[in-house]
Design goal:
Helices cover about 45% and strands about 10% of the residues. The protein is mainly alpha-helical and about 200 residues long. It has one domain. The strands form two sheets. The protein has a three-stranded antiparallel sheet. Strands 1-5 form a two-stranded antiparallel ribbon. A hairpin with a 2-residue loop joins strand 3 and strand 4. The chain is globular, with a radius of gyration of 18 Å. The protein starts with 6 loop residues before the first helix and ends in a 5-residue tail after the last strand. The relative contact order is 0.21.
Length: about 200
Amino acid sequence: MPLSVEPRQAAAVLQRHTIDATTAAEVLTRVRTAQAGFFTAGLFLQLPRHRTEPRLAPAVVDRLRGLGSPAAATAVTLWLATGIGVDELRGLRLRDLHDTGPDQHLAVGAVLYRVPARAAGLLRAAVIERHTQLTAEPRGHGSGGADGPYLFTGAAPGSIAGRRSLQGFLDRAAAHTGVTPAPPSFPGVGVHDLRGTS
């Protein structure tokens, strides 16, 4: 049975392996290591030109801590760490964040991303803040339905954040910290099955 890996999942593997790198050379080394791992499974990981600078360098995380808002710091951290868009960010639920020890993991559908230990505290603060909000909301308003409460909320208790509102939130926080918008992690990755080829 052939092993199938979707390009977005392969890009997420690269993200998990490179997110805590601190230099461009370290990012590149980790990318090549991941490619070698895929190759041992008979898969060729094709990468277009990609950015090699670290997505969450220690200096960036320090600036994000200065925002003073757990929700703002988390929104920008997830945006930088994963490159997911505003629509995916606004749809995140509390259950999508997983505290796995020193790191945090974010599940977006079937794709798993990692936030390194140096930035994980920012996410933990937002989760604590959101749980505090939930206890203050009228019963049933913050539940978010069967999928649980939203991570980023709108003006009404338990409502999802508006697209324009969250984009403005990200833009202001990014401008305040001096970070640039993040493209998707490793866009354009191709996965080719080499087994059975001569």
